[in-house]
Amino acid sequence: MSTKKITTVGMLCAMAMIVNVFISFPIVPAVSFLRYDPKDILIVIGGFIYGPMTSLLMSFICSIFEIMLKGGNILDVLMNMVSTCSFACMAAFVYKKVHNQKGAILGLVLGVMCTTISMLIWNYIITPIYYGMPRSAIVPMLLPGILPFNLIKATMNAAIVFFLYKPVVQILRRTHLVEKSDRQGSVYKGYIFVVGIILVTMILFVLGYQGII
Prior knowledge:
The chain is mainly alpha-helical. It has 7 helices and 2 strands, in the order αββαααααα. It has helices spanning 3-22, 39-50, 52-70, 74-97, 101-131, 135-174, 187-209, and strands spanning 25-26, 35-36. The longest helix is centred in the last third of the chain and has 40 residues, at 135-174. It starts with a helix and ends with a helix. Mean pLDDT is 86; it is low at 182-188.
């Protein structure tokens, strides 16, 4: 990893954590324990610049720093990473395959759909474990609460990414941190990661539905 890339990724992670600390609020009363924060915007921008594996790395770094600053445990890291990666890695993967405005829009739309669906499943699996409640108690929260929360959150972040990406990249290019032709990142590795998330999600859903976990 080049010094410029390390610097850029570090700056984006720092910005993501700053907005995470200062901007955080509930958006759906039915699930007030879920709070909106805009850190995924910076993580998607990093993925658009360097590829989906950079989004994965940024997600891990930000998740670790978030529990250091706000408290939490390994389940918080897991849920943060699933939520962010299902959105950011999907968007970055598609954008690297179709590197134009249409690809960016398609990637963001698919990212919104992916994170909305995956978080329905992962909240069904993990939330009862996290709060020590029966799994049947989380089911009434899924459609009226968890689904609209993640749909609204991801859509808001996608819209902001669409408007901010070019200005942010132009600033980074003026400071010579990002080259015009810089399209680093392995599409193949990103593809494997996205497929892996889908497979793990489906396996855990089946295990949770069968009452095994």
